[in-house]
Write a structure and sequence with these properties.
alpha/beta; Alpha/beta knot; 5-stranded parallel β-sheet; 5 helices; about 20% strand
Length: about 160
């Protein structure tokens, strides 16, 4: 069974988002070994300058590094400048990893300021959910739903219409 890691900066604060996340975690348990890794968000002043943001992203990136080893991992950085793809294509991306013998797919979700450039460079794919802007924490639940949908597509379920 393939392992899916969500490597996220920050924790879900709202109960309704934690409940939604828990529901998709439960649904995904039949398809993969899901692990949600919540890393600490670097502290920033209320009006950070560019240098402070870069320093914070580097600190968060350092915390991510232990989870994104190359080799048997396929790393997908969730970033606004990434490629957009359909649910069907995401399903094929995950299927392709399994066929190639990749044991772990890492979805890397940075803070509201993004992901350190060094982590992006190490990613196998940069993926964007949309050109629209979503609340950062809601985007994590949306990503879990899309991963669940990808597995449903793979098994030919009617969930994806």
């Amino acid at each position: 069974m393939i392992r899916i890691n969500l490597i996220c900066v920050g924790k879900l604060k709202e109960k309704y988002l934690r409940d939604a996340s828990a529901e998709y975690e439960k649904r995904l348990s039949g398809f993969c070994k899901l692990n949600i890794i919540e890393l600490n968000e670097a502290r920033l002043p209320s009006e950070p300058n560019d240098n402070e943001i870069i320093k914070a992203l580097r600190a968060e990136g350092t915390a991510m590094e232990q989870y994104i080893d190359a080799g048997s991992c396929h790393n997908i950085a969730m970033c606004i400048e990434g490629k957009q793809m359909s649910s069907e294509k995401l399903s094929k991306e995950i299927e392709s990893c399994a066929v190639k013998g990749v044991s772990t797919v890492n979805f890397i979700v940075g803070s509201s300021f993004g992901i350190d450039e060094n982590i992006k460079k190490r990613a196998d794919l940069r993926l964007s959910m949309s050109e629209m802007t979503f609340p950062h924490q809601l985007a994590r639940v949306m990503l879990l739903e899309q991963i669940y949908r990808a597995f449903q597509i793979s098994v030919g379920s009617r969930y994806h219409k």
